């Protein structure tokens, strides 16, 4: 989440006349993330999230994102839902941007996740996969393995400014991933960005997941590999095998992994580390002037990638094979 587009009081007041969400009390920008402009709206009926979709988001994808939230919520997955206006639309226009109002999810995200939270998020991810199985709209993963080399090409000439020798190391790894990327694993709708700040807990229990704007169709085990990177490394970037075991056991309590998925997990984890390194590198170099957003250091994912490069089997993540 972030703020790239300012919203005037007059434009907001006109926009809110489309909805039946009460009288505006407050509106505050949310300065986290890198994708869209987000505001916390307060009305006399409660809190909501106002999202303006920026140029980096393909407007053709918005029916997928918003429809997926409606679909999952209808199946009792704990997540926010789009607020439909008086005419039934979930998407409108504000300050020249496509915009939506989303329900507010109570809870706090875990800045230092513990083992029990890893179990819960693993189970929630598997539940997401199961409940998204019959979602009929499809969206290709725009950041899948074939996209990584072209994405790196946009930043390659400046990679050594971030760390000496980085360009060569990444080019070598991209070649490895292209040659070894798994095929024909079970697929479906994945969240693709289930980081700790996209999962809320309340009173010691899982209260829901947010931010579905990277969701797409891809390999389900790849989504789990993303979570291994996001949830199971400590602040010094050392892998915590206890958290890894908890995450995977939580997932398998709902959806057991196949033998092929388990065998592929190390290379999927390498790929997941690469994907987030590449987008962080891109953003690190190109943050728009004046944006209220702090870019995330791409070298965090270089360190995680180096761990995965030493992994031979999924047992290194805490699984008994």
- Portion of residues within helices: 40-55%
Number of separate structural domains: 2
Strand proportion: 5-15%
For the largest sheet, list the strands in their spatial order: 1-2-3-5-4
**Rounded average pLDDT:** 94
In whole angstroms, the N-to-C terminal distance is: 39 Å
CATH topology category name of the largest domain:
Aminoglycoside 3'-phosphotransferase, Chain: A, domain 2
Q: How large is the radius of gyration?
A: 20 Å
CATH superfamily of the largest domain: Aminoglycoside phosphotransferase (APH), C-terminal lobe
Shape: globular
Summary tags:
Aminoglycoside 3'-phosphotransferase, Chain: A, domain 2, two-stranded antiparallel sheet, five-stranded antiparallel β-sheet, 321 residues, 2 domains, 15% strand, alpha+beta, 10 helices, Phosphorylase Kinase, domain 1, globular
Please explain how this structure is put together.
This protein has 321 residues and is α+β, with helices and mostly antiparallel strands. The protein folds into two domains: 9-103, Phosphorylase Kinase, domain 1 (2-Layer Sandwich), CATH 3.30.200.20; 115-317, Aminoglycoside phosphotransferase (APH), C-terminal lobe (Aminoglycoside 3'-phosphotransferase, Chain: A, domain 2). The chain contains ten helices and nine strands. It has helices at residues 9-16, 62-74, 115-131, 145-153, 159-162, 166-180, 220-231, 241-252, 259-286, 299-309, and strands at 24-29, 37-43, 46-52, 92-94, 97-103, 187-190, 199-202, 205-209, 216-219. The strands form three sheets. The protein has a five-stranded antiparallel β-sheet, covered by helices on one side. It has a two-stranded antiparallel sheet with strand order 6-9. Strand 4 (92-94) and strand 5 (97-103) form a beta hairpin. Helix 4 packs parallel to helix 9 and helix 9 (259-286) packs antiparallel against helix 10. The longest helix is centred in the last third of the chain and has 28 residues, at 259-286. The protein is globular and about 55 Å long. 39% of the residues are buried. The mean pLDDT is 94.
């Amino acid at each position: 989440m972030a703020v790239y587009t300012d919203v005037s009081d007059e434009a907001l007041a006109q926009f809110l006349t489309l909805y039946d969400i009460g009288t505006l009390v407050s509106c505050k920008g949310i300065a986290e993330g890198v994708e869209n402009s987000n505001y916390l709206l307060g009305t006399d009926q409660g809190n909501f999230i106002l999202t303006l979709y920026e140029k980096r988001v393909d407007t053709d994808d918005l029916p997928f994102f918003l429809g997926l939230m409606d679909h999952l919520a209808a199946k009792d997955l704990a997540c926010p839902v789009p607020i439909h206006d008086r005419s039934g639309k979930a998407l409108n226009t504000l300050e020249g941007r496509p915009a939506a109002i989303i329900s507010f999810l109570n809870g706090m995200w875990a800045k230092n996740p513990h083992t029990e939270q890893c179990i819960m998020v693993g189970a929630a991810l598997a539940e997401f996969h199961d409940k998204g199985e019959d979602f009929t709209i499809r969206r290709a993963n725009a950041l899948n393995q074939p996209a990584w080399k072209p994405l790196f090409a946009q930043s390659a000439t400046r990679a050594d400014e971030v760390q000496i020798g980085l360009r060569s190391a990444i080019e070598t790894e991209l070649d490895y991933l292209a040659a070894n990327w798994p095929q024909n694993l079970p697929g479906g709708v994945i969240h693709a960005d289930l980081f700790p700040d996209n999962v809320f807990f309340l009173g010691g229990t899982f209260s829901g997941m947010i931010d579905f704007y990277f969701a797409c169709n891809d390999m389900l085990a790849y989504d789990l590999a993303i979570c291994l990177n996001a949830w199971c490394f400590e602040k010094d970037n050392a892998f915590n095998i206890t958290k890894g075991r908890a995450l995977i056991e939580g997932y398998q309590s709902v959806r057991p992994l196949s033998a092929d998925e388990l065998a592929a997990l190390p290379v999927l984890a390498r790929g997941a580390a690469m994907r987030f390194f590449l987008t962080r590198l891109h953003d690190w170099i190109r943050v728009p002037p004046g944006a209220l957003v702090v870019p995330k250091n791409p070298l965090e994912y270089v360190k995680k990638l180096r761990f995965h490069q030493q992994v031979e089997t999924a047992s290194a993540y805490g699984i008994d094979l």
